[in-house]
Protein backbone atom coordinates (compact mmCIF):
# COMPACT_ATOMS: atom_id res chain seq x y z
CA UNK A 1 0.00 0.00 0.00
CA UNK A 2 3.03 2.21 0.32
CA UNK A 3 2.96 2.82 -3.41
CA UNK A 4 -0.59 4.01 -3.47
CA UNK A 5 -0.72 7.63 -4.57
CA UNK A 6 -3.48 9.40 -2.79
CA UNK A 7 -5.53 12.14 -4.33
CA UNK A 8 -5.39 15.53 -2.75
CA UNK A 9 -8.70 15.14 -0.98
CA UNK A 10 -10.62 18.31 -0.37
CA UNK A 11 -11.01 18.16 3.33
CA UNK A 12 -12.52 21.57 3.65
CA UNK A 13 -15.85 19.82 3.70
CA UNK A 14 -15.31 17.28 6.40
CA UNK A 15 -16.67 19.01 9.49
CA UNK A 16 -19.90 19.62 7.70
CA UNK A 17 -20.17 15.96 6.86
CA UNK A 18 -20.02 15.28 10.57
CA UNK A 19 -23.06 17.31 11.35
CA UNK A 20 -26.11 15.23 12.00
CA UNK A 21 -29.62 16.34 11.20
CA UNK A 22 -30.57 17.64 14.63
CA UNK A 23 -32.52 20.85 14.62
CA UNK A 24 -30.48 22.65 12.01
CA UNK A 25 -33.11 24.43 10.03
CA UNK A 26 -31.47 25.96 7.05
CA UNK A 27 -29.94 22.96 5.39
CA UNK A 28 -32.38 20.91 3.42
CA UNK A 29 -33.11 18.13 4.09
CA UNK A 30 -30.27 18.18 6.68
CA UNK A 31 -26.66 19.45 6.68
CA UNK A 32 -25.05 16.19 5.61
CA UNK A 33 -27.46 15.33 2.81
CA UNK A 34 -27.52 18.95 1.63
CA UNK A 35 -23.77 19.09 1.32
CA UNK A 36 -23.44 15.71 -0.35
CA UNK A 37 -26.14 16.68 -2.84
CA UNK A 38 -24.26 19.90 -3.54
CA UNK A 39 -21.08 17.94 -4.22
CA UNK A 40 -22.89 15.54 -6.52
CA UNK A 41 -24.97 18.06 -8.43
CA UNK A 42 -23.24 21.43 -8.72
CA UNK A 43 -20.47 20.84 -11.20
CA UNK A 44 -20.06 23.75 -13.54
CA UNK A 45 -19.87 27.52 -13.35
CA UNK A 46 -19.40 29.94 -10.52
CA UNK A 47 -21.20 27.84 -7.93
CA UNK A 48 -19.41 24.59 -8.62
CA UNK A 49 -17.66 22.84 -5.77
CA UNK A 50 -13.92 22.47 -5.72
CA UNK A 51 -14.50 18.76 -5.31
CA UNK A 52 -15.67 18.46 -8.92
CA UNK A 53 -13.18 21.07 -10.12
CA UNK A 54 -10.43 18.74 -8.94
CA UNK A 55 -11.75 15.81 -10.99
CA UNK A 56 -12.88 17.52 -14.16
CA UNK A 57 -11.40 17.95 -16.75
CA UNK A 58 -10.57 14.32 -16.20
CA UNK A 59 -6.88 14.52 -17.02
CA UNK A 60 -6.47 16.92 -14.08
CA UNK A 61 -3.89 16.26 -11.45
CA UNK A 62 -4.94 18.39 -8.55
CA UNK A 63 -1.92 17.85 -6.32
CA UNK A 64 0.10 20.06 -8.61
CA UNK A 65 -0.95 23.12 -10.59
CA UNK A 66 -0.15 24.57 -14.01
CA UNK A 67 2.62 23.03 -16.11
CA UNK A 68 3.83 20.57 -13.44
CA UNK A 69 0.28 19.21 -13.22
CA UNK A 70 -0.17 18.90 -16.99
CA UNK A 71 3.22 17.21 -17.30
CA UNK A 72 2.87 14.91 -14.32
CA UNK A 73 1.28 11.96 -16.13
CA UNK A 74 -0.98 11.49 -13.10
CA UNK A 75 -4.77 11.67 -12.87
CA UNK A 76 -6.87 12.61 -9.86
CA UNK A 77 -10.05 10.88 -11.09
CA UNK A 78 -8.13 7.63 -11.52
CA UNK A 79 -6.57 7.93 -8.09
CA UNK A 80 -10.00 8.11 -6.47
CA UNK A 81 -10.99 4.80 -8.05
CA UNK A 82 -7.78 3.13 -7.07
CA UNK A 83 -8.05 4.31 -3.46
CA UNK A 84 -11.62 2.99 -3.33
CA UNK A 85 -10.55 -0.37 -4.75
CA UNK A 86 -7.76 -0.74 -2.23
CA UNK A 87 -10.02 0.21 0.68
CA UNK A 88 -12.65 -2.25 -0.55
CA UNK A 89 -10.56 -5.28 -1.41
CA UNK A 90 -9.63 -6.12 2.18
CA UNK A 91 -13.32 -6.73 2.87
CA UNK A 92 -14.13 -10.19 4.14
CA UNK A 93 -17.63 -11.32 3.27
CA UNK A 94 -16.89 -14.94 4.12
CA UNK A 95 -16.40 -14.88 7.88
CA UNK A 96 -17.69 -17.86 9.86
CA UNK A 97 -20.13 -15.59 11.67
CA UNK A 98 -21.64 -14.57 8.35
CA UNK A 99 -20.68 -10.95 8.92
CA UNK A 100 -18.74 -8.60 6.69
CA UNK A 101 -15.56 -7.01 7.97
CA UNK A 102 -13.72 -4.22 6.19
CA UNK A 103 -14.85 -2.84 2.87
CA UNK A 104 -15.29 0.87 2.29
CA UNK A 105 -14.50 2.12 5.78
CA UNK A 106 -11.47 4.33 5.13
CA UNK A 107 -9.28 1.91 7.01
CA UNK A 108 -6.89 2.79 4.20
CA UNK A 109 -6.10 5.89 6.22
CA UNK A 110 -4.29 3.69 8.73
CA UNK A 111 -1.07 2.88 6.99
CA UNK A 112 1.00 4.14 9.84
CA UNK A 113 -1.01 5.76 12.56
CA UNK A 114 -4.38 5.83 14.16
CA UNK A 115 -6.32 8.74 12.79
CA UNK A 116 -9.51 10.60 13.53
CA UNK A 117 -10.53 10.51 9.90
CA UNK A 118 -14.24 11.00 10.28
CA UNK A 119 -16.12 11.30 7.01
CA UNK A 120 -13.38 9.71 4.92
CA UNK A 121 -15.23 6.57 3.90
CA UNK A 122 -18.21 8.44 2.47
CA UNK A 123 -15.76 10.70 0.63
CA UNK A 124 -13.93 7.75 -0.91
CA UNK A 125 -17.24 6.46 -2.24
CA UNK A 126 -18.20 9.94 -3.40
CA UNK A 127 -14.87 10.39 -5.19
CA UNK A 128 -15.56 7.18 -7.09
CA UNK A 129 -19.10 8.14 -8.06
CA UNK A 130 -18.03 11.60 -9.19
CA UNK A 131 -14.96 10.43 -11.07
CA UNK A 132 -16.90 7.83 -13.03
CA UNK A 133 -19.78 10.15 -13.83
CA UNK A 134 -17.79 13.29 -14.65
CA UNK A 135 -15.42 11.30 -16.87
CA UNK A 136 -18.12 9.75 -19.06
CA UNK A 137 -19.59 6.86 -17.08
CA UNK A 138 -23.03 6.44 -15.56
CA UNK A 139 -24.34 7.96 -12.36
CA UNK A 140 -23.76 5.29 -9.71
CA UNK A 141 -26.38 5.70 -6.96
CA UNK A 142 -24.62 7.35 -4.06
CA UNK A 143 -25.71 6.14 -0.63
CA UNK A 144 -24.09 7.85 2.37
CA UNK A 145 -23.75 6.46 5.86
CA UNK A 146 -20.42 4.66 5.90
CA UNK A 147 -18.66 4.49 9.22
CA UNK A 148 -14.96 5.16 9.37
CA UNK A 149 -12.77 2.44 10.77
CA UNK A 150 -10.78 3.04 13.92
CA UNK A 151 -8.08 0.59 12.92
CA UNK A 152 -6.71 -1.21 9.91
CA UNK A 153 -8.81 -4.04 8.48
CA UNK A 154 -7.97 -7.43 10.00
CA UNK A 155 -7.65 -8.82 6.50
CA UNK A 156 -4.54 -7.93 4.54
CA UNK A 157 -3.61 -8.54 0.93
CA UNK A 158 -4.21 -6.27 -2.03
CA UNK A 159 -3.57 -7.69 -5.50
CA UNK A 160 -0.25 -6.48 -6.86
CA UNK A 161 1.24 -6.84 -10.35
CA UNK A 162 3.28 -9.87 -9.29
CA UNK A 163 0.41 -11.58 -7.43
CA UNK A 164 -0.55 -14.94 -8.93
CA UNK A 165 -4.00 -15.15 -10.47
CA UNK A 166 -5.29 -17.73 -7.97
CA UNK A 167 -4.38 -15.50 -5.05
CA UNK A 168 -5.88 -12.47 -6.78
CA UNK A 169 -9.14 -14.32 -7.40
CA UNK A 170 -9.13 -15.49 -3.80
CA UNK A 171 -8.82 -11.89 -2.61
CA UNK A 172 -11.68 -10.77 -4.86
CA UNK A 173 -13.74 -13.78 -3.79
CA UNK A 174 -13.30 -12.98 -0.14
CA UNK A 175 -14.62 -9.49 -0.87
CA UNK A 176 -17.67 -11.02 -2.59
CA UNK A 177 -16.65 -10.83 -6.27
CA UNK A 178 -16.38 -13.96 -8.40
CA UNK A 179 -14.00 -14.40 -11.35
CA UNK A 180 -16.24 -12.74 -13.89
CA UNK A 181 -16.94 -9.82 -11.53
CA UNK A 182 -13.23 -9.45 -10.80
CA UNK A 183 -12.26 -9.31 -14.47
CA UNK A 184 -14.99 -6.84 -15.35
CA UNK A 185 -14.35 -4.65 -12.30
CA UNK A 186 -10.66 -4.48 -13.10
CA UNK A 187 -11.36 -3.60 -16.74
CA UNK A 188 -13.79 -0.91 -15.55
CA UNK A 189 -11.17 0.52 -13.18
CA UNK A 190 -8.39 0.30 -15.70
CA UNK A 191 -10.16 2.43 -18.28
CA UNK A 192 -8.90 5.48 -16.33
CA UNK A 193 -5.32 6.40 -15.55
CA UNK A 194 -1.95 4.76 -15.90
CA UNK A 195 0.75 2.59 -14.43
CA UNK A 196 3.65 4.83 -13.50
CA UNK A 197 7.37 4.18 -13.66
CA UNK A 198 7.50 6.31 -10.54
CA UNK A 199 6.12 3.74 -8.09
CA UNK A 200 6.17 0.69 -10.38
CA UNK A 201 9.59 0.60 -12.09
CA UNK A 202 9.34 -3.19 -12.29
CA UNK A 203 6.24 -2.80 -14.53
CA UNK A 204 7.01 0.33 -16.58
CA UNK A 205 10.55 1.09 -17.69
CA UNK A 206 12.40 4.41 -17.34
CA UNK A 207 11.81 5.23 -21.03
CA UNK A 208 8.27 6.33 -20.07
CA UNK A 209 9.65 9.31 -18.17
CA UNK A 210 9.81 12.43 -20.36
CA UNK A 211 9.61 16.18 -19.72
CA UNK A 212 5.88 16.01 -20.44
CA UNK A 213 5.33 12.81 -18.45
CA UNK A 214 7.46 13.35 -15.39
CA UNK A 215 6.12 10.37 -13.42
CA UNK A 216 6.40 8.05 -16.41
CA UNK A 217 2.73 7.16 -16.75
CA UNK A 218 1.91 4.36 -19.17
CA UNK A 219 -1.78 4.75 -19.92
CA UNK A 220 -4.14 1.76 -19.72
CA UNK A 221 -5.80 2.91 -22.93
CA UNK A 222 -5.55 5.75 -25.44
CA UNK A 223 -8.02 7.87 -23.44
CA UNK A 224 -6.72 7.95 -19.88
CA UNK A 225 -9.24 10.60 -18.83
CA UNK A 226 -12.33 8.95 -20.32
CA UNK A 227 -14.42 6.33 -18.60
CA UNK A 228 -15.14 4.29 -21.71
CA UNK A 229 -14.79 0.69 -23.05
CA UNK A 230 -11.63 1.51 -24.97
CA UNK A 231 -9.34 -0.49 -22.68
CA UNK A 232 -11.34 -3.62 -23.53
CA UNK A 233 -11.31 -2.90 -27.26
CA UNK A 234 -7.60 -2.16 -27.40
CA UNK A 235 -6.90 -5.36 -25.44
CA UNK A 236 -8.97 -7.63 -27.68
CA UNK A 237 -7.96 -5.88 -30.92
CA UNK A 238 -4.28 -5.52 -29.93
CA UNK A 239 -4.39 -1.85 -30.85
CA UNK A 240 -3.36 1.31 -29.00
CA UNK A 241 -2.20 0.48 -25.47
CA UNK A 242 -3.22 -3.20 -25.95
CA UNK A 243 -4.77 -3.30 -22.46
CA UNK A 244 -2.00 -1.38 -20.73
CA UNK A 245 1.25 -2.10 -18.93
CA UNK A 246 -0.23 -4.82 -16.72
CA UNK A 247 -0.86 -6.76 -19.96
CA UNK A 248 2.20 -5.81 -21.96
CA UNK A 249 4.95 -5.18 -19.38
CA UNK A 250 8.52 -6.10 -20.35
CA UNK A 251 8.45 -7.97 -17.04
CA UNK A 252 6.35 -11.10 -17.49
CA UNK A 253 5.90 -11.50 -13.72
CA UNK A 254 4.14 -8.13 -13.63
CA UNK A 255 1.49 -8.94 -16.27
CA UNK A 256 -1.31 -9.35 -13.70
CA UNK A 257 -4.09 -8.03 -15.93
CA UNK A 258 -3.14 -10.43 -18.73
CA UNK A 259 -3.21 -13.38 -16.30
CA UNK A 260 -6.55 -12.26 -14.89
CA UNK A 261 -8.18 -11.57 -18.28
CA UNK A 262 -6.89 -14.88 -19.71
CA UNK A 263 -7.95 -16.90 -16.67
CA UNK A 264 -11.26 -17.75 -18.37
CA UNK A 265 -9.78 -17.83 -21.87
CA UNK A 266 -10.69 -14.14 -22.45
CA UNK A 267 -14.38 -15.03 -22.26
CA UNK A 268 -15.37 -12.20 -19.92
CA UNK A 269 -13.29 -9.66 -21.85
CA UNK A 270 -14.90 -10.80 -25.10
CA UNK A 271 -18.29 -10.43 -23.50
CA UNK A 272 -17.48 -6.84 -22.51
CA UNK A 273 -16.12 -6.24 -26.03
CA UNK A 274 -19.34 -7.40 -27.66
CA UNK A 275 -21.51 -5.15 -25.52
CA UNK A 276 -22.87 -1.81 -26.59
CA UNK A 277 -21.20 1.12 -24.85
CA UNK A 278 -24.45 1.59 -22.96
CA UNK A 279 -24.39 -1.98 -21.65
CA UNK A 280 -20.70 -1.71 -20.73
CA UNK A 281 -21.43 1.44 -18.74
CA UNK A 282 -24.34 -0.27 -16.97
CA UNK A 283 -22.12 -3.23 -16.09
CA UNK A 284 -19.41 -0.97 -14.68
CA UNK A 285 -21.89 1.16 -12.73
CA UNK A 286 -23.39 -1.99 -11.20
CA UNK A 287 -20.02 -3.48 -10.21
CA UNK A 288 -18.55 -0.23 -8.92
CA UNK A 289 -21.78 0.40 -7.02
CA UNK A 290 -21.42 -3.01 -5.38
CA UNK A 291 -17.81 -2.17 -4.59
CA UNK A 292 -18.53 1.11 -2.81
CA UNK A 293 -21.56 -0.35 -1.03
CA UNK A 294 -19.49 -3.19 0.44
CA UNK A 295 -19.43 -2.03 4.04
CA UNK A 296 -18.93 -3.77 7.37
CA UNK A 297 -21.92 -5.54 8.91
CA UNK A 298 -23.73 -3.14 11.17
CA UNK A 299 -23.34 -0.19 8.81
CA UNK A 300 -26.70 0.86 7.43
CA UNK A 301 -26.34 2.91 4.28
CA UNK A 302 -28.93 5.65 3.81
CA UNK A 303 -31.08 6.10 0.71
CA UNK A 304 -29.26 7.26 -2.41
CA UNK A 305 -28.88 11.02 -2.68
CA UNK A 306 -31.06 12.27 -5.50
CA UNK A 307 -30.66 15.65 -7.20
CA UNK A 308 -33.20 18.05 -5.66
CA UNK A 309 -35.41 19.87 -8.17
CA UNK A 310 -35.93 22.73 -5.69
CA UNK A 311 -33.20 23.41 -3.16
CA UNK A 312 -32.99 26.42 -0.88
CA UNK A 313 -29.33 27.16 -0.19
CA UNK A 314 -27.62 29.63 2.14
CA UNK A 315 -30.97 30.39 3.74
CA UNK A 316 -30.24 32.28 6.93
CA UNK A 317 -31.38 34.98 9.30
CA UNK A 318 -29.05 37.97 9.57
CA UNK A 319 -29.07 41.70 10.07
CA UNK A 320 -29.07 43.95 7.06
CA UNK A 321 -25.83 45.95 7.35
CA UNK A 322 -27.38 49.32 6.54
CA UNK A 323 -30.71 49.24 8.32
CA UNK A 324 -29.93 46.81 11.15
CA UNK A 325 -33.19 45.13 10.26
CA UNK A 326 -33.62 41.41 10.62
CA UNK A 327 -33.78 39.72 7.19
CA UNK A 328 -34.15 36.20 5.89
CA UNK A 329 -32.05 35.72 2.78
CA UNK A 330 -30.82 32.97 0.56
CA UNK A 331 -30.95 31.42 -2.84
CA UNK A 332 -33.38 28.95 -4.35
CA UNK A 333 -31.67 26.57 -6.73
CA UNK A 334 -33.92 25.17 -9.44
CA UNK A 335 -32.89 22.26 -11.64
CA UNK A 336 -34.44 21.60 -15.03
CA UNK A 337 -36.31 24.90 -14.96
CA UNK A 338 -36.60 27.34 -17.79
CA UNK A 339 -35.44 30.77 -16.55
CA UNK A 340 -38.47 32.50 -17.95
CA UNK A 341 -41.11 30.89 -15.79
CA UNK A 342 -42.24 32.56 -12.58
CA UNK A 343 -41.18 31.12 -9.27
CA UNK A 344 -42.78 32.23 -6.04
CA UNK A 345 -42.08 31.87 -2.34
CA UNK A 346 -45.00 31.85 0.07
CA UNK A 347 -44.62 32.00 3.85
CA UNK A 348 -46.81 29.99 6.16
CA UNK A 349 -47.71 33.10 8.17
CA UNK A 350 -50.03 34.48 5.56
CA UNK A 351 -50.38 35.62 2.03
CA UNK A 352 -46.97 37.17 1.46
CA UNK A 353 -45.85 36.11 -1.96
CA UNK A 354 -42.54 37.09 -3.43
CA UNK A 355 -41.93 36.69 -7.09
CA UNK A 356 -38.39 35.58 -7.81
CA UNK A 357 -36.10 36.34 -10.74
CA UNK A 358 -33.09 34.28 -11.56
CA UNK A 359 -29.63 35.78 -11.46
CA UNK A 360 -29.27 37.33 -14.90
CA UNK A 361 -27.67 35.36 -17.69
CA UNK A 362 -26.10 32.77 -15.44
CA UNK A 363 -26.33 29.09 -16.24
CA UNK A 364 -24.75 26.24 -14.41
CA UNK A 365 -24.66 22.61 -15.29
CA UNK A 366 -25.90 20.11 -12.80
CA UNK A 367 -25.02 16.44 -12.60
CA UNK A 368 -23.87 16.71 -16.17
CA UNK A 369 -27.40 16.86 -17.42
CA UNK A 370 -29.08 20.20 -17.11
CA UNK A 371 -28.85 23.89 -16.44
CA UNK A 372 -29.36 25.25 -12.98
CA UNK A 373 -30.80 28.62 -12.05
CA UNK A 374 -30.31 30.48 -8.80
CA UNK A 375 -33.09 32.74 -7.53
CA UNK A 376 -31.82 35.03 -4.76
CA UNK A 377 -34.22 36.45 -2.18
CA UNK A 378 -34.02 38.72 0.84
CA UNK A 379 -37.11 39.39 2.92
CA UNK A 380 -37.49 41.55 6.06
CA UNK A 381 -38.32 39.58 9.19
CA UNK A 382 -41.19 41.94 9.89
CA UNK A 383 -42.90 40.87 6.66
CA UNK A 384 -42.69 37.20 7.52
CA UNK A 385 -44.34 37.39 10.91
CA UNK A 386 -44.14 34.17 12.83
CA UNK A 387 -43.91 31.89 9.82
CA UNK A 388 -42.40 28.47 10.46
CA UNK A 389 -42.01 27.45 6.83
CA UNK A 390 -42.03 28.68 3.27
CA UNK A 391 -43.26 27.12 0.08
CA UNK A 392 -41.69 27.34 -3.37
CA UNK A 393 -43.91 26.93 -6.38
CA UNK A 394 -43.91 27.82 -10.04
CA UNK A 395 -44.61 26.58 -13.54
CA UNK A 396 -43.41 23.05 -14.15
CA UNK A 397 -42.48 22.65 -10.47
CA UNK A 398 -43.89 20.34 -7.86
CA UNK A 399 -44.58 22.70 -4.97
CA UNK A 400 -42.42 22.07 -1.92
CA UNK A 401 -42.39 23.36 1.65
CA UNK A 402 -39.29 24.01 3.77
CA UNK A 403 -39.18 24.67 7.52
CA UNK A 404 -37.51 27.76 9.01
CA UNK A 405 -37.10 29.01 12.56
CA UNK A 406 -39.38 31.84 13.67
CA UNK A 407 -38.10 35.39 13.21
CA UNK A 408 -36.39 36.33 16.46
CA UNK A 409 -35.77 32.79 17.61
CA UNK A 410 -32.18 32.44 18.83
CA UNK A 411 -29.79 32.15 15.85
CA UNK A 412 -26.18 32.49 14.66
CA UNK A 413 -25.49 35.87 13.04
CA UNK A 414 -23.31 35.03 9.99
CA UNK A 415 -22.24 38.64 9.38
CA UNK A 416 -20.95 38.85 12.97
CA UNK A 417 -19.10 35.51 12.91
CA UNK A 418 -15.65 34.98 11.42
CA UNK A 419 -12.99 32.33 10.96
CA UNK A 420 -9.34 33.31 10.85
CA UNK A 421 -6.39 31.00 10.21
CA UNK A 422 -6.43 29.31 13.58
CA UNK A 423 -9.59 30.45 15.32
CA UNK A 424 -13.26 31.26 15.07
CA UNK A 425 -15.37 33.88 16.78
CA UNK A 426 -19.12 33.80 16.65
CA UNK A 427 -22.16 35.81 17.60
CA UNK A 428 -25.62 34.58 18.46
CA UNK A 429 -28.70 36.81 18.66
CA UNK A 430 -31.77 36.28 20.76
CA UNK A 431 -34.77 38.48 21.19
CA UNK A 432 -34.31 40.80 24.23
CA UNK A 433 -37.53 39.56 25.74
CA UNK A 434 -36.60 35.88 25.51
CA UNK A 435 -35.18 36.15 29.06
CA UNK A 436 -32.41 33.74 28.12
CA UNK A 437 -30.06 32.95 31.00
CA UNK A 438 -26.31 33.20 30.44
CA UNK A 439 -25.53 29.59 31.24
CA UNK A 440 -27.94 28.22 28.68
CA UNK A 441 -26.22 28.80 25.33
CA UNK A 442 -23.27 26.77 24.12
CA UNK A 443 -21.56 26.24 20.77
CA UNK A 444 -20.03 22.96 19.68
CA UNK A 445 -17.03 23.68 17.47
CA UNK A 446 -15.51 21.18 15.03
CA UNK A 447 -12.42 22.31 13.11
CA UNK A 448 -10.20 20.27 10.77
CA UNK A 449 -6.44 20.46 11.17
CA UNK A 450 -3.66 18.60 9.41
CA UNK A 451 -2.19 15.59 11.14
CA UNK A 452 1.04 13.84 10.25
CA UNK A 453 1.26 10.42 8.59
CA UNK A 454 -2.28 10.20 7.26
CA UNK A 455 -4.19 11.77 4.44
CA UNK A 456 -7.15 12.51 6.69
CA UNK A 457 -7.40 15.65 8.79
CA UNK A 458 -7.91 15.51 12.50
CA UNK A 459 -11.15 17.09 13.66
CA UNK A 460 -10.63 19.14 16.80
CA UNK A 461 -13.83 19.55 18.79
CA UNK A 462 -14.70 21.79 21.72
CA UNK A 463 -17.70 23.19 23.55
CA UNK A 464 -17.74 26.95 24.15
CA UNK A 465 -20.14 28.62 26.57
CA UNK A 466 -21.41 31.94 25.26
CA UNK A 467 -21.10 35.25 27.13
CA UNK A 468 -23.82 37.89 27.05
CA UNK A 469 -22.54 40.94 25.15
CA UNK A 470 -23.12 44.60 26.04
CA UNK A 471 -24.52 45.65 22.68
CA UNK A 472 -28.09 45.23 21.46
CA UNK A 473 -29.65 45.90 18.05
CA UNK A 474 -33.30 46.33 17.04
CA UNK A 475 -34.64 44.37 19.98
CA UNK A 476 -31.92 41.72 19.98
CA UNK A 477 -29.46 40.68 22.65
CA UNK A 478 -26.11 39.33 21.49
CA UNK A 479 -24.08 36.47 22.85
CA UNK A 480 -20.47 35.94 21.89
CA UNK A 481 -17.83 33.27 22.01
CA UNK A 482 -14.58 32.29 20.38
CA UNK A 483 -12.30 29.35 20.12
CA UNK A 484 -8.64 29.15 19.21
CA UNK A 485 -7.38 25.85 17.84
CA UNK A 486 -3.75 27.12 18.03
CA UNK A 487 -3.15 25.31 14.75
CA UNK A 488 -3.83 26.20 11.13
CA UNK A 489 -7.40 25.20 10.28
CA UNK A 490 -7.51 23.43 6.92
CA UNK A 491 -11.19 23.81 6.05
CA UNK A 492 -14.59 25.00 7.11
CA UNK A 493 -15.34 25.21 10.83
CA UNK A 494 -18.64 23.69 11.82
CA UNK A 495 -20.61 25.40 14.62
CA UNK A 496 -23.68 23.98 16.33
CA UNK A 497 -25.69 26.15 18.71
CA UNK A 498 -27.32 24.31 21.61
CA UNK A 499 -29.48 25.28 24.53
CA UNK A 500 -29.64 22.72 27.30
CA UNK A 501 -28.81 19.91 24.86
CA UNK A 502 -31.30 21.00 22.19
CA UNK A 503 -29.88 22.06 18.80
CA UNK A 504 -31.02 25.53 17.75
CA UNK A 505 -28.92 26.39 14.73
CA UNK A 506 -25.97 25.41 12.63
CA UNK A 507 -23.34 27.49 10.85
CA UNK A 508 -20.44 26.62 8.60
CA UNK A 509 -17.71 29.22 8.84
CA UNK A 510 -15.26 29.74 5.99
CA UNK A 511 -16.79 27.13 3.72
CA UNK A 512 -16.92 29.46 0.73
CA UNK A 513 -18.32 28.30 -2.56
CA UNK A 514 -17.58 24.69 -1.85
CA UNK A 515 -19.41 24.56 1.42
CA UNK A 516 -22.83 26.03 0.90
C1 LIG B 1 -5.97 -7.64 -10.23
C2 LIG B 1 -6.28 -6.55 -9.64
C3 LIG B 1 -5.52 -5.27 -9.79
C4 LIG B 1 -4.19 -5.03 -9.82
C5 LIG B 1 -3.05 -6.01 -9.65
C6 LIG B 1 -4.02 -3.62 -10.02
C7 LIG B 1 -2.80 -2.99 -10.09
C8 LIG B 1 -2.63 -1.67 -10.43
C9 LIG B 1 -1.37 -1.00 -10.57
C10 LIG B 1 -0.02 -1.61 -10.31
C11 LIG B 1 -1.61 0.27 -10.95
C12 LIG B 1 -0.61 1.38 -11.21
C13 LIG B 1 -0.68 2.46 -10.16
C14 LIG B 1 0.22 3.63 -10.43
O1 LIG B 1 1.20 3.50 -11.14
O2 LIG B 1 -0.09 4.72 -9.92
C15 LIG B 1 -3.03 0.39 -11.07
C16 LIG B 1 -3.67 1.54 -11.44
C17 LIG B 1 -5.02 1.72 -11.35
N1 LIG B 1 -5.95 0.81 -10.89
FE1 LIG B 1 -5.61 -1.12 -10.56
N2 LIG B 1 -5.25 -3.06 -10.14
C18 LIG B 1 -6.19 -4.02 -9.99
C19 LIG B 1 -7.57 -3.85 -10.00
C20 LIG B 1 -8.18 -2.63 -10.02
C21 LIG B 1 -9.59 -2.42 -9.79
C22 LIG B 1 -10.60 -3.50 -9.47
C23 LIG B 1 -9.80 -1.08 -9.90
C24 LIG B 1 -11.07 -0.29 -9.75
C25 LIG B 1 -12.26 -0.71 -9.82
C26 LIG B 1 -8.53 -0.47 -10.24
C27 LIG B 1 -8.36 0.86 -10.51
C28 LIG B 1 -7.17 1.41 -10.92
C29 LIG B 1 -7.04 2.75 -11.47
C30 LIG B 1 -8.15 3.73 -11.74
C31 LIG B 1 -5.68 2.93 -11.74
C32 LIG B 1 -5.01 4.18 -12.30
C33 LIG B 1 -4.42 4.98 -11.18
C34 LIG B 1 -3.70 6.21 -11.63
O3 LIG B 1 -3.65 6.50 -12.82
O4 LIG B 1 -3.21 6.93 -10.75
N3 LIG B 1 -7.58 -1.44 -10.27
N4 LIG B 1 -3.63 -0.79 -10.73
C1 LIG C 1 9.73 -8.21 -12.38
O1 LIG C 1 8.75 -8.06 -11.34
C2 LIG C 1 9.05 -8.75 -10.17
C3 LIG C 1 7.87 -8.61 -9.24
O2 LIG C 1 7.59 -7.26 -8.99
C4 LIG C 1 10.34 -8.25 -9.56
O3 LIG C 1 10.65 -9.00 -8.40
C5 LIG C 1 11.45 -8.36 -10.57
O4 LIG C 1 12.61 -7.76 -10.07
C6 LIG C 1 11.05 -7.69 -11.87
N1 LIG C 1 12.04 -7.89 -12.88
C7 LIG C 1 12.58 -6.89 -13.54
C8 LIG C 1 13.55 -7.25 -14.61
O5 LIG C 1 12.33 -5.72 -13.30
C1 LIG D 1 -6.49 -13.31 -24.87
O1 LIG D 1 -6.48 -12.08 -25.57
C2 LIG D 1 -5.20 -11.52 -25.72
C3 LIG D 1 -5.35 -10.15 -26.35
O2 LIG D 1 -6.06 -10.20 -27.52
C4 LIG D 1 -4.32 -12.45 -26.54
O3 LIG D 1 -3.03 -11.90 -26.64
C5 LIG D 1 -4.25 -13.78 -25.83
O4 LIG D 1 -3.54 -14.71 -26.63
C6 LIG D 1 -5.64 -14.34 -25.57
N1 LIG D 1 -5.53 -15.50 -24.76
C7 LIG D 1 -6.32 -16.55 -24.90
C8 LIG D 1 -6.09 -17.69 -23.98
O5 LIG D 1 -7.18 -16.58 -25.74
C1 LIG E 1 -40.13 20.63 -16.91
O1 LIG E 1 -39.52 19.67 -16.04
C2 LIG E 1 -38.99 18.53 -16.67
C3 LIG E 1 -38.39 17.61 -15.62
O2 LIG E 1 -39.11 17.63 -14.46
C4 LIG E 1 -37.94 18.94 -17.68
O3 LIG E 1 -37.49 17.81 -18.37
C5 LIG E 1 -38.50 19.97 -18.65
O4 LIG E 1 -37.45 20.43 -19.47
C6 LIG E 1 -39.10 21.15 -17.90
N1 LIG E 1 -39.68 22.08 -18.83
C7 LIG E 1 -39.47 23.39 -18.75
C8 LIG E 1 -40.17 24.24 -19.75
O5 LIG E 1 -38.78 23.89 -17.90
C1 LIG F 1 -11.17 26.31 -5.38
O1 LIG F 1 -10.10 26.11 -6.25
C2 LIG F 1 -9.60 27.28 -6.86
C3 LIG F 1 -8.49 26.89 -7.80
O2 LIG F 1 -8.69 25.65 -8.36
C4 LIG F 1 -9.11 28.25 -5.80
O3 LIG F 1 -8.70 29.45 -6.41
C5 LIG F 1 -10.22 28.53 -4.79
O4 LIG F 1 -9.73 29.29 -3.72
C6 LIG F 1 -10.77 27.24 -4.23
N1 LIG F 1 -11.91 27.54 -3.39
C7 LIG F 1 -12.06 26.99 -2.18
C8 LIG F 1 -13.31 27.34 -1.47
O5 LIG F 1 -11.24 26.28 -1.67
C1 LIG G 1 -23.46 30.87 -0.15
O1 LIG G 1 -22.68 31.73 0.66
C2 LIG G 1 -21.28 31.64 0.42
C3 LIG G 1 -20.56 32.47 1.44
O2 LIG G 1 -21.10 33.74 1.52
C4 LIG G 1 -21.01 32.04 -1.02
O3 LIG G 1 -19.64 31.92 -1.31
C5 LIG G 1 -21.79 31.15 -1.95
O4 LIG G 1 -21.60 31.54 -3.29
C6 LIG G 1 -23.25 31.17 -1.61
N1 LIG G 1 -23.92 30.18 -2.44
C7 LIG G 1 -25.08 30.40 -3.02
C8 LIG G 1 -25.61 29.31 -3.84
O5 LIG G 1 -25.70 31.43 -2.86
Automatic annotation (TrEMBL):
This enzyme's EC code(s): 1.11.1.-
A molecular-function term among this protein's GO annotations: peroxidase activity
First and last residue of the signal peptide: 1-24
Keyword annotations of the record: Heme, Iron, Metal-binding, Oxidoreductase, Peroxidase, Signal
Domain Plant heme peroxidase family profile residues, every copy: 121-196
Highest taxon in the source lineage: Eukaryota
InterPro entries linked: Ccp1-like, Haem_peroxidase, Haem_peroxidase_sf
One Pfam short name: peroxidase
Protein name (Swiss-Prot/TrEMBL): Peroxidase
Organism (species): Apiospora hydei
Taxonomic lineage from the root: Eukaryota, Fungi, Dikarya, Ascomycota, Pezizomycotina
Amino acid sequence: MSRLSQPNLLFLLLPALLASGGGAMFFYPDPQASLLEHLLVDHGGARATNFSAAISPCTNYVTEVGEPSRNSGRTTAAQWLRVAFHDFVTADTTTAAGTITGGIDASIGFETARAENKGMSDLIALGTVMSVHLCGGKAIPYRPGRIDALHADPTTGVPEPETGVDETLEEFGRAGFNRQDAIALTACGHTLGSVHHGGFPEVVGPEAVTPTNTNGGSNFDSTRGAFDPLVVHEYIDSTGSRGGALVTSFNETARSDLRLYESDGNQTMRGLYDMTTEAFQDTCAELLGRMIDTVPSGVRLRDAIAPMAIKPVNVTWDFNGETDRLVLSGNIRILWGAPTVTKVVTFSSGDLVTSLSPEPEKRYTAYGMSDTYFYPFSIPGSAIGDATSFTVSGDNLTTQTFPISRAGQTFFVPSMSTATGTSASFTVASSTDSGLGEERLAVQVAAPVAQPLTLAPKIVTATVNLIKAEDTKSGFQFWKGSYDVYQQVTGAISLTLTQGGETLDHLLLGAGVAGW
